[in-house]
Structures are given as structure tokens and as C-alpha cells.
Amino acid sequence: MRRLLVFILVSLLSPLAWAQSTLSGTVCTSDGVPLPQVAIVLEKPGSLRRVTSGPAGHYRIDGLASGDYTIRVEAPGLILDGDARVNLGADTRLDLTLKPAPVREQIVVTATRGDAPASALGVSVSVLDRERIREREASSFLDLLREVPGVTVARAGALGSQSSAFVRGGESNFARVLIDGVPVNEAGGYYNFAAQFPLELARVEVVRGAASSLYGTDALAGVIHLVTQRAGLDAKPSASAEVEAGDFAWRRARGGTSGRAGRLDWNAGLVYLETDNEHPNSAFEQKAGAIALGAQLGERSSLRAVLRGETSTAGTPGAVAYARPDRDASSEHDELVASAAFRHARDRSAHELHAGIASTDQLSKNPLDSGSYLPRAGARSAAFASSDFPNALGYQNDTRRLTLGYQLETQLGGSHLATAGAELERETGEIGDRSAPPFLSPQRTNVGAYVQDRITLWRRLALTLGGRVERNDSFGTRAVPRPAAAWRVGAASRATTLRASAGAGIKEPSFFQSFGVSVFALGNPDLKPERSRSYDAGIEQRLLRDRLRVEATLFHHDYRDQIAYKVLSNAPFRASYENLGRTRARGLELTLDSAPSGYVRFGAQYTRLDGKVLVSTSSNPLYAVGEPLLRRPANQGSLWASFQVSRISGGATWMLVGERADSDFLGIGLTKNEAYSRLDARVRVALRSGLEAFAVAENLLDRKYQEVLGYPALGRAVRAGVRFRTGEDRP
Predict the structure, then answer these.
(1) Phi and psi at residue 662, in whole multiples of 5°?
(2) 3-state class percentages of the chain: helix first, strand second, coil last, to nearest 5
(3) Residue 210 in contact with residue 380, Cβ under 8 Å?
(4) Mean pLDDT for each 10-residue chunk of the chain (731 residues)?
(5) Three-state SS letters, 454-474
(6) Rounded to whole angstroms, how far apart are CA atoms 330 and 367?
(7) Are 656 and 640 in contact (CB under 8 A)?
(8) Which of 61, 204, 211 is nearest to 143 (CA)?
(9) CATH 2.40.170.20 residue window(s) in the chain
């Protein structure tokens, strides 16, 4: 009894001998992006503890004895900024900031619907960050996508013409397109990039592989996500302006402001652009704007809203390489995208409510009948004459999509980061010939629920398991899964990452395919969803102390139940749509990114695509079984380099696109489009504080080529201008 009393007395008088401390804080990048699911290692002689950061980058390590510790964060492409040592004598808060390595790690949102380092994902993803977008000085958004492996783009002529993107051999409506988290595809998946320009963009994320497990309909081949710029954490109020002029009567003026005041932040920009392009009746004019507003409602809650809009007019002369230019046809395009999100984050969970609306209104007009003509290509003539199809009032395609959703992220134990959410989408439209009402006025409601678990095992193996159940008014209920894995071997600065993923995709029919009333295109309410099955496997290697990154990925996509046009009878004529087609796309993607010094950076990407028609009922030989996929080259790639020396910076991009199947669709009989290359270059000179002069040359070697057969691309185009920024430059 005496010994027990002595033990209790000594324990009460010596609390420090039994004291245990807690180390906690957040992990984020140098520009304030939180980093969940990052391994944190705390060690001292004889002791080592590991934890994984939670939804908002929070971490907590309990039960620590006092003493000196070394802290390490295992994230390839990111370096701990600051002292790696910490002395614990009591509960301590230590926020960890990770700065980018020479070849930086990219933080991706789209792949998991939450911030995640790309190296911790098993899926194939590419990110064009703000620095890369600004350095590229691209005249259109489509030029940015040209540098992404696995993505083919095609524009039917000059700037402002119909523009499409094909991801991994899929059709142009097989990728979901998001702007600030809001889906902007028309019903049925198609999105016209013609009026999309790199205005106030913070980054572009491209996820390759079926992603319907998170996004439901349209994501058969992947997701393309555009994110609007927001003010930095330490941004002071600033303003900017630029003007430029160049070939083809190019005129562009832009102004903007950005900053932070107390709990509020903002970023806004307006632009006016006009050009007459190169061919008759191909002039383009656009007015556009973007604004992002944020408010910190407390220590853990925030509200953010983004609004982007544009209105433009483009002349549409047609396939002028083989046909007479149509001098009165035009297209008017108006687009509005608005989003709002409320987020409340705690140490181990985060809740988000989000809403968005996307509205696209396109009016195609052709007031005058220019008569018939015979298309020609050199000595070849079409087998039949083509006619003009006048329409004084025009054909209108006005579609809207309203999205509402809730998402929960929560950390389960030390190695699981679970996500669950639900979304409702309401699609409506007004489509048809304005001279022959009534319009088609369809509507459709989709409801989806998804779950996902990101698991970290043994510090180096990251698993992502997810799935979604989608209830669509047109095709009913479908479930789509997606597993992925990434395994890192070696130290972060020379890490080898092996990854693999598989997924299922679904896509709803277009409004016409489901609800059409014309005898030439009767809607079929019993259509099944178009489906995809995809898988890929790859390796990423970091070398030379994070100054070189190489990546290789093998992929295979199977696109099934593709909707095809089918003639039902000839007397009387009736046609509709059925799930009859099937195609396959497989290949290899290669990427290289290097920063040998602080003054020079270069990169390259290459895609080998083997795409073929597997099942077809079309009478057109272009779509016969065994034929290659239209407008998707077997070989394509690009090389780019950038530099900065004192006040001068610049770069160049060389794009190479191989031969591809195509058609003139005019009866001439052309079925191949020739390979081409294009060289773009740019240079900037800092004149004084805040003032910069720049010059850009696109198609510097003046190559003659056609991205779409019959529609010549622009020749050499040189433009120059000045830009001025007050206050601190935006990151």
C-alpha cells in the first residue's frame, strides 16, 4: 500500500514526465491550394510516425513525446518550404507549405472532384497551369488543347469556325466539358469550342479515360475542365490592360482587375476581339468577360461565385477549298456560364453545396440563295452539283443546363479519404427552323449519386475506387464504376510511379435523337445510352533532381452502342436512330517535361492512335467495318520550349499532325487529309515596371493545310501589342 501511495504522489508531482504533445496544421501549396491525402512523416532517433492529410489539407499527430523532430512530406514535384525541424514541448501547430520543384507537381481537381496531387492518382491527367497558358500566347483555346496528349482538335476553317475536340479516339461529343465545375455540353454531349478563348484562365485540366463514375453522362472518353483565375492569397488590388493588332485585321483589347480586401477577393476581365481572317465572309467579332468573386465567411467557411459570358458573330463561307464561298451565311453565338459554391471544411470533413447554369444559343443564317455549283478539287469534279440552302430567319439551337449538387468529403481512419455526392441536372432547349415553327422544345432531368474512396497504403500505394448510379429520363438507370491505382517507388526527387485505371462511361442521346419529329429524323425514345469501356496503364519517371519528368501510357477504349442514323422506309421516306455502331481506339501517349535551368524549359508529347470501326450499318464506305476513325490521325505530337533571360522571354511550339481519314462530303471522292506541321513563336520584352511589349507569330512558316478537309487554315499571322499591370502581378 505504501508503494502505491508513493507511486501516485510521484506521478502527480511530475506531470511533465508523462506529458504527451500533439502536432497539427495544414498542408498546402505556395499559392494556397490545400493538399489532402499527402503522406507526412515525423521522426527522431528511435521514433517514427506517419499520417495522411485530410480533406482540406489538415493533419494531426497525437501522443508525441517532447523533443526535436524532423518532418518530411512525401510528394513528388513538391518541396517543403521552410525548416524541416520542429521542437515539441507542448501542443504545437505547424502549417506546411510545399513549393514547386523545377518540374512541378500539378494539383488536380477534376480527376477526384477534390484537390489531389497528380502523382497520387492512377488516372491519366494533363494540366495546363496559368504560367503555361500565359507563356503560350494562344489566339484561341483550341490551340492550348493541341499540346495535350491523347487529344485531337479540328477547326473547320479560320478563327471562330466550328471547332471540335476528340479525346482518345472518341467522337467529338464523347468528353464532358466543364467550366468552373459546370457542365456546358449540349444535350447529347457536343460542345463547340469556336467561341472559347483563354480569357482569365487559371488552368485547364484534361482527364483521359471514361469518367462517368464521377460525372455521369457524356464522359465516355474523358473530361475537359476550364477553371477561371482567382486572386492570390496575398494579392493587393491591381489593374491590367493590353492591346494588340496584327495580320488579317486582327484587333484585340483587354482590361482587368484583381485583388483581395479583407475577407473578399475578386478577379475580372473583359475582352473585345475582331478579325477578318483570310477568306471571303469569314470575319469574326467577339465581346467576352469573366469574373470570379470569393468571400471567407469564417475560419472554415467560404462562398465563391464565377460568371463567364460571350457574344460573337462569325461569317461561314463553307468549304472554300473546293466550293464557291457563301458570302452571306453567318453564325451568331451567345454563351453564359454561372456557378456558385458554398464550402464548409473541418479537420476531418468538408461539405460543399454547388449550383450552376450553362446557356448556349447559336443562330445560323443564310439569307440569300446563291444558286447551285459544281465542287472541284484540281482536275477532279464532283459527281453531282451542290445547292445553297437559304434560310432568312435562320436555324436556332438554344440549350440550357441547370445543375444542383451536394458533396461530402471525410477522412476515415488514417488512410481513407471518402467522397459522396448527389447531383440533379435539368436540360431544356428551343431548337429548330425559325421560318418553319413550331420549335422542338425538349426537356430532360437527370439525377445521379456517386461515392469514392481514396486509400493510401504503405505510404506509397494510392488506390481510388468509385462508382455512380445515374437516373436519366431518356435511358433509365445505369451504374458505372472506376478503379485506379498509383504505386510510387524511390525518393520523391527521382520517383518512379506506376499507375493503372479502368472505367465505364455512358452518354445520353441528343435531343433530336430522342425527341425529333421530322420524318427525315424521327426521335427514338427507346434508345440505350452509348457506352464505353476503357483501361490504361502507365509509368512516370522523375530524374535529375526533379528537373526531368517522362511519362508513357498505353490505353484501350471500346465505344459501344453508338447511335446511328437508319432509314426505316423509302415509300414513304422515314428515318430514325438506333444503337448500331461500335468503334475501338487504342494506342500510346508519351510526355516529356524538363527544366534544365531557371532560364530554359522545354517539353514534348506524342500520341499513337489505332482507331477502327468495328460494327457499322452505314452505306458510306468511310464508315465501313475496319476503316480508320474520321479526322483522328494515327500520329500526332508537339515540341515546345520557353526561355527567360533578364528582361526578354519567349518560346516556340512546333505541332505535327499525321495523315488522317476525312471526306469532302461534296461528292468529289476525297477520303484522305494530308499531314501538316505548324510552327508558332512568341517573344516578350519588359520595358519598365509593369509595362511589357510582345509579338506572336502563328504558322510562322506559312504552311498550307486543312484541319478539316475543304476548310483551309490561316496562313502566317503576326500580331504585336503591349500590356500594362499596376500593383502586384497576379500569380
Answers:
(1) -160, 180
(2) 5, 60, 35
(3) no
(4) 48 48 85 81 82 82 84 81 79 85 85 86 92 94 94 94 95 96 94 93 95 93 95 86 97 96 94 94 96 92 96 95 92 97 91 97 92 91 89 91 96 88 96 81 95 88 94 95 92 84 95 86 92 96 91 97 88 88 96 93 97 89 92 97 95 97 93 96 93 97 96 96 76 36
(5) EEEECCCEEEEEEEEEEEECC
(6) 9
(7) no
(8) 204
(9) 225-522+538-571+582-725
What residues contact residue 211 under an 8 Å CB cut-off, 6+ apart?
110, 111, 123, 176, 219, 222, 223, 482, 503, 505
CATH topology assigned to domain 107-224: Ferric Hydroxamate Uptake Protein; Chain A, domain 1 (2.170.130)
Report the pLDDT value the prediction gives residue 731, as an integer from 0 to 100.
36
Q: Residue 364 corresponds to which cell in the numbers above?
A: 445560323
414 DSSP 8-state letter: T
3-state secondary structure of 61: strand
Q: Which CATH class name applies to 19-100?
A: mainly beta
Are the beta carbons of 26 and 56 closer than 8 angstroms?
Answer: yes
**What is the SS3 string spanning 80-119?**
EECCCEEEECCCEECCEEEEECCCCCCEECCCCCCCEEHH
Q: Where in the chain is the domain with CATH 2.170.130.10?
A: 107-224
In angstroms, the CA 587 to CA 626 distance is 16
Which cell numbers hold the place of 66?
517532447
The domain 225-522+538-571+582-725 is placed in CATH, from the list 3.40.630.30, 2.40.128.20, 2.40.170.20, 3.30.390.30, at: 2.40.170.20
The grid coordinates of residue 302 equal 467560404
Rounded Cα distance, 206 and 125, in Å:
6
Phi, psi dihedral angles at 510 (to 5 degrees): -75, 170
